[in-house]
Input
Amino acid sequence: MSKSKITGILLAGGESRRFGSHKAFAKLNQKYFYEYAIEALEGNVGKVFIVSHPTLVEQFRSQTTVEVIQDLPGLKGNGPLAGMFTVMQKEASDWYVVLPCDTPFVTDELVQQLITFTKDQSIDAVVPVINGRQQPIIAVYHSRVAKKIEQMLKERHFKMSHLLDSCHVRFVTNQDLQLQGLEFENINNQTEFEKIQEKPMTDFRNKD
Output
């Protein structure tokens, strides 16, 4: 599939209360968390959007040339579905690859693999299930889910699981993907961040 028919969505609108500061601007190996997500997306999609919290828009814009937007009026603070819908309304595309800003080990190779499953045009979404846990914001969604999301937002249903329940989803597991081990490791608080920093830096992120 041509990457011009795929758009990248980087969700960076959370307030990161448990982390203590915005996770997008935490650094690992001298690189911001959000930069890892952008690198994973850029080679695989036609365009990338960062959906940001209002207080962070200018900081992002001062550091990256990627387009930074906010949730549509009336949708602010309504979670990943609001961010996804905002980009779907702004940029017409066949598919949308969604990534969060707190998984610094996500890779270009993982995104490539997820996109390969979109050859089946009967599916609405490609969602990893890693060690038994669904990963709906490291996933790929067809444009047709925009109508479902719009209805959910109107009804004040904000859970990603509700969207998946209404879609034809291709779930992919550890066995379907070639993983290096940390791609889905998300950082929720300072303790988890410290543990990641203490790991021997012999993994793939140390190749830069």
Summary: Confidence is low (pLDDT under 50) at residues 200-208. The helical segments are 33-42, 57-63, 80-90, 108-116, 145-154, 160-165, 190-198. Residues 103 and 186 are 5 Å apart (CA to CA).
